[in-house]
Amino acid sequence: MSGNTLGKLFTVTTFGESHGPALGCIVDGCPPGLEISEADIQPELERRRTGTSRHTSQRKEPDQVKILSGVFEGRTTGTPIGLLIENTDQRSRDYEKIKDRFRPGHADYTYDQKYGFRDYRGGGRSSARETVMRVAAGAIARKYLRERLGVSIQGYLAQLGPLVLEPKSLSTVYDNPFFSPDPSRLEELEEYMINLRRDGDSVGARVNVIASGVPAGLGEPVFDRLDADIAFAMMSINAVKGVEIGAGFASVSQKGSEHRDEITPQGFLSNNAGGVLGGISSGQDVVVSIALKPTSSIIVPGRSIDLDGNPVEVVTTGRHDPCVGLRATPIAEAMLALVLMDHYLRHRGQNADVTSKFALKTLLPGGD
Amino acid sequence: MSGNTLGKLFTVTTFGESHGPALGCIVDGCPPGLEISEADIQPELERRRTGTSRHTSQRKEPDQVKILSGVFEGRTTGTPIGLLIENTDQRSRDYEKIKDRFRPGHADYTYDQKYGFRDYRGGGRSSARETVMRVAAGAIARKYLRERLGVSIQGYLAQLGPLVLEPKSLSTVYDNPFFSPDPSRLEELEEYMINLRRDGDSVGARVNVIASGVPAGLGEPVFDRLDADIAFAMMSINAVKGVEIGAGFASVSQKGSEHRDEITPQGFLSNNAGGVLGGISSGQDVVVSIALKPTSSIIVPGRSIDLDGNPVEVVTTGRHDPCVGLRATPIAEAMLALVLMDHYLRHRGQNADVTSKFALKTLLPGGD
Amino acid sequence: MSGNTLGKLFTVTTFGESHGPALGCIVDGCPPGLEISEADIQPELERRRTGTSRHTSQRKEPDQVKILSGVFEGRTTGTPIGLLIENTDQRSRDYEKIKDRFRPGHADYTYDQKYGFRDYRGGGRSSARETVMRVAAGAIARKYLRERLGVSIQGYLAQLGPLVLEPKSLSTVYDNPFFSPDPSRLEELEEYMINLRRDGDSVGARVNVIASGVPAGLGEPVFDRLDADIAFAMMSINAVKGVEIGAGFASVSQKGSEHRDEITPQGFLSNNAGGVLGGISSGQDVVVSIALKPTSSIIVPGRSIDLDGNPVEVVTTGRHDPCVGLRATPIAEAMLALVLMDHYLRHRGQNADVTSKFALKTLLPGGD
Amino acid sequence: MSGNTLGKLFTVTTFGESHGPALGCIVDGCPPGLEISEADIQPELERRRTGTSRHTSQRKEPDQVKILSGVFEGRTTGTPIGLLIENTDQRSRDYEKIKDRFRPGHADYTYDQKYGFRDYRGGGRSSARETVMRVAAGAIARKYLRERLGVSIQGYLAQLGPLVLEPKSLSTVYDNPFFSPDPSRLEELEEYMINLRRDGDSVGARVNVIASGVPAGLGEPVFDRLDADIAFAMMSINAVKGVEIGAGFASVSQKGSEHRDEITPQGFLSNNAGGVLGGISSGQDVVVSIALKPTSSIIVPGRSIDLDGNPVEVVTTGRHDPCVGLRATPIAEAMLALVLMDHYLRHRGQNADVTSKFALKTLLPGGD
Lengths: 368, 368, 368, 368
Fold this sequence. Notes:
The first copy, chain A, is α+β, with helices and mostly antiparallel strands. In chain A, 24% of the residues lie in helices and 20% in strands. Chains A, B, C, D: Keywords: Amino-acid biosynthesis, Aromatic amino acid biosynthesis, FAD, Flavoprotein, FMN, Lyase, NADP.
């Protein structure tokens, strides 16, 4: 399969560039009978949308999704679902000045090397705009997972540059433009972003995502492990440079007696595994953390070369996010939903006859 | 495709359990004409082999690989290569005592939940023994990459529990049982492992892998990015809980002006990208780091449940590694080779007509 | 992959129903640099279009294709190509009368059994209207094959019910609404269709397709043979019940001394193989023949059951082709182009280093 | 995936050449809990085995299969099943004389063109010996289909050269070396083969296969239709040049009123569809027919060229079947089983929630 398809049974194939007429995707393999309409998808697009705050790029677009197929009388038919979002606010002239040079840290150089030339308008296919279709497709997966399996997926901004945020209030994450899980830090975040923008620079971020209610048994080792597919899906998001499951890199310095999650008849006593053991979901929360690099499109001048190999200085003006991580929360949620959905169908295909013996979850410290 | 196949054009499909009669794999899609024999594969198996030091499990097996097909008169024919390694030192009676209970932190529980029952002998399919075929298949990919493209792949132990190792002497990595890149730290490592074993505990590790000479252009965005497939392949290794490319999680607190790798006509001035921009190789070194959790099979007693859900105490005796990370270096090298090989063929399939314009590498600080 | 994707490196994923707002597809894996525009695709859609003659269904639609992505400044960029065709002439009320019953010989029954319910408007996803995207995608493949490899693909109607047509004038096939290769038989065909329509019945057809200039070496045995993928692609066309390569079923009664195509330094002396030996193209013409059943939507009353299992009589009025085979020629050509394109890229991916030793073609009887 | 893997959820990947040390395969995705042992597979291998009669090639090999993984305590574990058959009767010296030339009608030429050189011993990978692993893997699928779903699969020789055989006694097919369904024709078949062998020639054959008890709903249109995957699987068998489903090519001259299978509350009144409508199984018998060409390895001299392009005369001595179709019945049965098994799991993955409303079968003429 070529590179723009995700999944094996529940698949998402996307197309579209930042400044083309439209972006779209095909969701294939969705079980029939799911009630779905544009109204189920649009709110998730709103959360992702550029322009929700002055801290993300000022592109003004409604991102209005249209369902073109696969739904009849309000329910999925089991046939492929075509989704389309038209681009309405392309300002391509902004990009004329970078068409003949490579922004350092950007995909400009590698696209040119791979394909021989590139659509330089707004980053073309390499633009983060592409993730809009991930969120749209993810909305369908999330609805199925929530309604049929009781799975809920929640992400949040865990770190912005030097500022580490604690998950104090997950229920308020969607109420602020940073997806901060700590409402008491909003002013601090705002101030940090104002200074960053003033400096014409950008910064990295960490986003965490948690899926609760995931049934045990999802994952197809030895290669197509649930955590391997999660790592794949997360690393496929623009700007992601690292992925952790559960304790992640902290497990490097853990002892086995500390890391392993002990089991009692009432549940697991901890969740260092992040909900995945041997590549298969355990029924505990699936816990994922990703690192996003600072965007490369900044005003601070940088050294680079042009198409002829001559040295040039690059300054990126135009609309750009000083922190792409600020928009990554809904995208990471969508990717986790897509992976879980695909693995649920795959597991059901092979193992529909097997009945899980247990339904253990993680016991919280307080103990419910 | 079911879960035991890796890759799309250069594919590896594996089978085999820890205590079955044999393990094997099929390498499909290898270009014809590559000179290959068991002698090319065996040394890499030796490096991975259990029993190379007293710090890894004392299973004594030659891991003798046989090429069963796909090679004629010393060269690959383009048809599938069947590889087989017989198990000769199974001591299944060691495992009778854990057959009715789940080791905490182990795949015992999830395999049982997924499939309804499990081959409990030595972990069955979830055993790290499975990785022997990854190394065997990887040896073929490495040879092609090295001979045809000039790609070299080098891994090393970057951290053992609390001990961080600097890459002072990569040429000596294979000369010590820890794959340590710093020969001056060997005694310290040895002492740490002796204490760990004495305590009946285990510890995590970090392993780094670097591929040099990778041509620019490999990777198929937006999903099948080179880094996404690397993350997938690495996370599919037993015990891996985290993957980083380039600066990885350090990029969270980096500024854009710091992270981006500036370009001059002579080369890149840094490599925070880890050799991948926009999901496509840049020609710089591909730099990967992985976190391995401490193994769950330890002597320190732990709480768990049995098959009927009753509470039990689990103590794992038998042959087990106190640090699976010690053996992970050759495995991580193999996985990186397999991903690069697959992406090279995929890129060539789609873009054989395109000529790369540049061949920039990272300029070293000293400046060659 | 779910069921709506064709190919492995050059892939086509389609969506859309007969009476939904639009049909579309994503062509992924097209090599960069191919000059393409809507003007290259539209003529092939015209050839397929319903309403080209009074013998096919009278739906009046322009089938205007839009390229939504993957093309920049007139050339493919190597990124996915999104294609869209809006439905503009749906008359869904025609189908109210069959919504609660199954047309005998139609997919009504099986879609309902598989998915629990169905989009009954115009056959929904099972409508032959779906093939419009195959033709659109095929146009891109054909252009690449023709311009880069010199491959030409030509189909024709070989049989209409009892009327067998000889390939007397392939150059005139596109000049008549039957795709007849024998201009002298047009009146006869017309008369046959008039009588058939008058009787309210339908009839089957045979279509042949030939690809010339195919390079030797395409096909990936033992499963993904070129002929196996051709059989797959052809049988996936609505109404196709049989596929032959070369001598096809005639080879059942042939002797080996008769069937084998002898070779001379000047070329092959015959082409019973149909251009494929051992699943790999030989460089001879690839010759394919398919059988299309008579459409099931006819006026002649037939016995069936309704959604509750009660016996009903079914009469299909509305717009229907009395011979779906009449429109199958461009579709079969497109499918052959798509398979050849995918196999060309796959072969190039694995075997780009190999140089073909010979370039033998079939010697024609006269001997050029 | 490269070309040696069949299926998507229930996959079979094979390796091995005619004269290598062994052939093998990996069956991945088999549901856990199926009782299986070598004793379930061996009888199907015996039926396929060369040397069962003097009319097939005289290679004497036990074809003893070993299960190397995926089965524990007599039941499948859900992990990949490794199967191995060692070659014990290679007589490679027979092939020295054809190593530098291409047998006309054989894959010699195309393998050489594709890969640059070939394993000429016994046809290497292109040998029909490869099908032994298809039969072994198929035996597992058949057992699951039979025991869990009540599906039975029965093939037979429908035509040998000019001799057409009627299915008079399907229960006796396995009792004669021709797989003839008409015991009264055995002498005639024997005499025909004796004459053919005396002439040093070969002949084609037609084989039919029928699957009964197939549940409605299998098949994933618009591309991965059940009939499309059957066509693929059948055409991937050595020497197959044509595939029909149901009425097949006879439907070309049928009227719609004749072809369509009318439905009553008691069942379908005919089965021209061959059990597949719109690419989805209807619950009727799945009926497949294939054409096998005469083998190209014959004693009658033929014109060809050598590796340098010079004209040569080719006479193939050694062990060869004068009619490969005689051995095709168990192979075709196996392929049909593999396709049905894969589609059953795929359907279950996507549509496990859907309950079929009807369970109609074909009413036999007599009317049971």
